[in-house]
Amino acid sequence: MANNRILIIDFGGQYDQLIARRVRECCVFSELYNHDNIGIEKIRAIDPKGIIFTGGPQSAYGENAPTVDEEIFRLGIPILGICYGAQLMAYRLGGEINSAPTSEYGRTEVTIDDREGLLRTADDVNVCWMSHTDYISRPPEGFVITAHTEDCPVAGMEDRQRRFYAVQFHPEVEHTAHGFEFLRTFVLDICGCAQDWKMESFAETQIKALREKIGTGKVLLALSGGVDSSVVAALLAKAIGPQLTCVFVDHGLLRKDESAEVAAVFGEGGLFDLDFVKVDAAKRFYQRLAGAVAPEDKRKIIGEEFIRVFEEEAKKIGAVDYLAQGTIYPDVIESGLGKSAVIKSHHNVGGLPDYVDFREIIEPLRLLFKDEVRQLGRELGLPEEIVSRQPFPGPGLGVRIIGEVTAEKCRIVQDADAIYREEIAKAVAEGRMKEPNQYFAALTNMQTVGVMGDFRTYDYAIALRAVTTSDFMTAEAAEIPWDVLQRAMTRIVNEVDHVNRVFYDLTSKPPGTVEME
Ligand code: XMP
Question: Looking at the predicted structure, is the pLDDT value of residue 347 above 90?
């Protein structure tokens, strides 16, 4: 399986990770490299079955335009150019690129002229997603035009003899009809890749590799209960069982019952036979947080205190050889292997001190995308509540309680959040709404006057939030059926002490953020 992979060369387009995921959805391994981080020798060493050039914001004829070594076209490897990648291919092979008189953005009707190659599954007029200001005005010698639009003479071209294919539109986005099929045709039929990238076999080979690497060594894992670290725990439990210690720090800022849920899966009598240490540290976190009001101060305190607790536990365990982490592929790409445009502004609270002495760090998920991590978790027998868990910020409820954090406020927001999640889950199960990508209750820290049973109240207001998003970089407030919101509101006000008002947060990101702090 060593060379059964597609190499994706990244020119800074918006959908580059999506291309890599789509290839993997064909059960073929794909790797994404930034264009300036992959020379011809490295390509030869990787020896991919196919290469994809991604989109990008530049003009292929521009002075500092990102490019490729011309030798790449002589390797005999099939190449698919998408958007900027298509223009780059045309430009480097002697075609002509110009600024388009009319730019095309979004949904565009593409007329198919030739369906002998890549576009064999296309409709006569195929709806595609476009986003370009330059276009190919004349293809290089040896290419046939396979598609055009009203404003774009070359929406697709190919040289089937040399196995070079190019499309101006984005086959990787859902809005392109048959787009996934075009990619599938390239990966399976044109490149001839075998479909050997499956989570089942990944689990098997990883478990074997981890066993060999770790030998009789001891491994420590900071388990947060989130998807990534839970899947690492499950993988290591199967690989080395009793040599693993999972340290789970309950900082008192978790969702309702979360601590018990994690302990039930990983603790004694749970699914796995491993050493599970649960540290009840809520009190010391609340003490450290007393008086802290500014979001950044709270984040810093929570992060630092987490590290202190973890260090203490690591010392107690002693003589640990390896530290395991739940790093996943987007983290690897964002730290330089692919492009570097999108850097996460948040650190997980599990950011660990470098001076805890470990021989090595083990990151068994570093090749996987999030949806693959979830699949792997299912493969390893993790319960659905953990596998499909929505993201939860490292500082936990600390950033969902505006202003000072207290044990009482944590209890209020936990109870309100549990009710809200229950009502949404019910509506989703009844098919009345799609599950938002993230939803939760937050405590506004605002107190208002209300009336309950003829008495005046002066209590807290809860804000409900639900967003739809694909990457959490931008988000929109989700549309929740009115009666679901009403039922959640009624229950929260009736069942949660010291809440007398409920708001729904309509703000998108930007200008808002997903979390309130
Ligand atoms: P924002 O609030 O920045 O959140 O729009 C985007 C996504 O990141 C999560 N988030 C965090 N995750 N540590 C994390 O691990 C953090 O400090 C943190 N802050 C926000 C948030 O829940 C959302 O999914």
Answer: no
- As a whole number of angstroms, the distance between CA 127 and CA 176 comes to 6
Determine the CATH number of domain 400-504: 3.30.300.10
- The helix (run of H) or strand (run of E) holding residue 175 is none
Please determine whether the domains at 199-387 and 400-504 fall in the same fold group of CATH: no
Give the pLDDT score at 385: 87
- Check: pTM over 0.85? Answer yes or no: no
Q: Is pLDDT at 348 greater than 50 in this prediction? A: no
Asked if CATH classification 2.60.120.260 holds for the domain at 199-387, the reply, yes or no, is no
**What is the CATH number assigned to the segment(s) 5-190?**
3.40.50.880
DSSP assigned state of 104: E
pLDDT digit string, tens, across residues 198-221: 999 999 999 999 999 999 999 999
For residue 172, indicate whether it is catalytic.
yes
User: What residue ranges do the domains of the chain occupy?
Assistant: 5-190, 199-387, 400-504
* Site of tokens 């002697």: 94
Task: Tell me whether residue 27 is one of the annotated catalytic residues.
Answer: no
Calculate the average pLDDT of the chain.
Answer: 92
- Give the closest residue (by CA) to ligand 1 atom 3: 513
CA of 517 to the centre of ligand 1 (A): 9
Q: CB-based contacts of 307: which residues, under 8 Å, 6+ apart?
A: 351, 352, 353
Helices (H), 159-294: 179-184, 199-214, 227-240, 258-266, 282-289
Residue nearest ligand 1's atom 8 by CA: 393
